[in-house]
Each structure stands twice: as C-alpha cells, then as structure tokens.
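Lecture 7 notes: from sequence to structure.
We start with the chain below.
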Amino acid sequence: MTEKVGKDSLFIAAIFVVIAIVILIDVINDLGAGGSLIHVGLEIGVVGLALMALSWIGIRSFRAMQDRIEVSQQRLQELEVEAARWREQVARLKPNLEDALTRQFATWKFTEAEEEIARLILKGLSNKEIAEVRASSEKTIKQHTTAIYRKSGLTSRSQIAAFFLEDLF
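Predicted structure tokens for the same chain:
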C-alpha cells in the first residue's frame, strides 16, 4: 500500500511539473507577443500554485519516508534485543550441545574431517561451500559426506539435521 501511495505521489508531482513548465512556456510566449499583464500574472499565479502543490507532495512524501525509516529502526532495535537474548540462551546451552554432538559423532566413529564436515552440514553449508571453507575439492567433500551417511545410517543432509533437531521441538 505504501509503495502505491509513493508511486501515486510521484505521478501527481510529475503532472504538476509538466503543468508548471507548460504554463511558463505560455507566459514567455505571451510576454513576447505583448500579452496582457493580468493574463500573465494569472498564469504566474497558477505556476506558483503548481509549485506549492509540488512542495506539499514533496514534504508529505519526505515525512512518510521518515516515518517508515523510524518504524524500521524501531523494529531493528527490537530484533537486536531479541537476537542478543537468543545468543545468551545459545551460549548457555552450547557446551552441552557441543558435547552431545561430539559423543554422537564418536559413536558413529567419524574421523576428525568427517566430524568437521558434519558440523558444517548442520550449519546448512553446501558441498561447494564446505570445500571452500576447508580449502579442498568438492569431490573430496562428496567422499566424506558419503562416508558420513554410511557410518551414521542416514541418507541425506536433512536426515542428519532431523536426527539432532527432532527431539528439540
């Protein structure tokens, strides 16, 4: 809705600019042709009204933009507080989760590389991204993920994530 109002205001502003330009051209022609000063004065008054309307639209649009920015800034502050609260909770729980992950990976007899790759899988990274992080080839990562699936008895990234997240919800 706000975007449509902004486009409408811009369209109306453009119309006022065109009106002002057309009338100014007419004023110049009238003055060159010896037109009446009353007629020219009226036209200049209409140009003034068009420019005032244009200013009003500009001020209104500027204030609306300021209001949207203020709402966005307030929402951002709320999200920052929420994120800080979440980070605090995670910081308290992380050591226990780390231990649980490490124990499960040991149960599955993952190598150090497989454990690191499994953690990156849980973070949502693709094979290509994991290869970049580990400075290795995608083929090597694919071989490790195959070993991870075989050793864990799971068949996909989503199953690995579900294995660890299923009981949290």
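Points to note: Helices lie at 2-32, 37-107, 112-122, 127-134, 138-152, 157-165. The CA atoms of residues 55 and 142 lie 62 Å apart.
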